[in-house]
Design goal:
Blueprint: H1 6-21, H2 27-34, H3 38-50, E1 54-57, E2 63-66, H4 75-83, H5 107-123, H6 126-134, H7 136-141
Antiparallel strand pairs: 1-2
Helix pairs in contact: 1-3, 1-4, 1-6, 2-3
Length: 150
């Protein structure tokens, strides 16, 4: 099954929150608003900051803010910052350690599907997620737009 990890979910929640807030928030503020353990949220935010998606500021007025415009941060950026590369198969393009590698008849098609998924995730931005939340009527009538390239 294809699904995001809890950490990736939390990372997207935090990024959307920060995009809507248009300012900074502490890990505690975000965690409490969305009923997420504070320690886990702090780890997720630290990882996003290390990957350059968030800027962190220490002190009483400190917290996390988007490091670049929400229009420049994709869903793929967030997922890969948290979970690493998007994969669909246990093998990679250079991993010949699999006993089935030379005979596998689904590896290449699955890699192409993975590339399509990654392309779709790379065309949807945090800004799009925030826009849908800002106007409740839009989220009911229009899903997130994912522009697939063929």
């Amino acid at each position: 099954m294809l699904r995001l990890s809890k950490k990736a979910d939390y990372g997207l929640i935090a990024m959307k929150h920060l995009a809507l807030r248009n300012g900074s928030s502490s890990a505690r503020e975000i965690a409490e608003q969305f009923d997420i353990p504070v320690e886990l949220m702090a780890k997720v935010l630290q990882r996003l900051a290390r990957k350059g998606l968030l800027a962190s500021q220490q002190g009483t007025r400190g917290g996390y803010a988007l490091a670049k415009p929400a229009t420049a941060i994709t869903i793929a950026d967030v997922i890969q910052a948290i979970d690493g590369p998007v994969t669909m198969t246990a093998c990679s393009e250079t991993d010949e350690n699999c006993g089935q590698y030379s005979k596998c008849n689904v590896r290449d098609p699955l890699w192409r599907i993975k590339e399509r998924i990654l392309t779709a995730l790379s065309t949807c931005t945090i800004s799009e997620m925030a826009v849908d939340a800002a106007d409740p009527d839009l989220s009911v009538t229009r899903p997130l737009t994912v522009h697939a390239r063929h």
